[in-house]
Write a structure and sequence with these properties.
Blueprint (H helix, E strand, L loop, with lengths): L1 E4 L8 E4 L2 H16 L6 H11 E3 L11
Antiparallel strand pairs: 1-2, 1-3
Bound molecules: zinc ion.
The site of zinc ion has 7 residues, from helix 1.
Length: 66
């Protein structure tokens, strides 16, 4: 799972997705809708990718499927 937390001080939006591509698509949509940036430049997306996206483990530790 990938999790995005918006870094804007006026926005605490949080998005999760199972794939990074999809998450970045949702991030772009969020930036467009909420922050009024029509087409987020790649530099912004890669910046957000590095600073606001975290990878979370889908399965709890110690519970591995055979
Ligand atoms: Zn935001």
């Amino acid at each position: 799972m990938y999790e995005f937390e918006c870094g804007s001080p006026v926005c605490n939006h949080r998005l999760t997705s199972s794939s990074k591509d999809e998450l970045m698509r949702e991030v772009a949509e969020h930036v467009r809708r909420t922050h009024g940036i029509a087409v987020p430049p790649k530099s912004i997306l890669s910046y957000l990718d590095e600073t606001a996206v975290t990878e979370t483990s889908p399965t709890p530790k110690g519970r591995r499927k055979p």
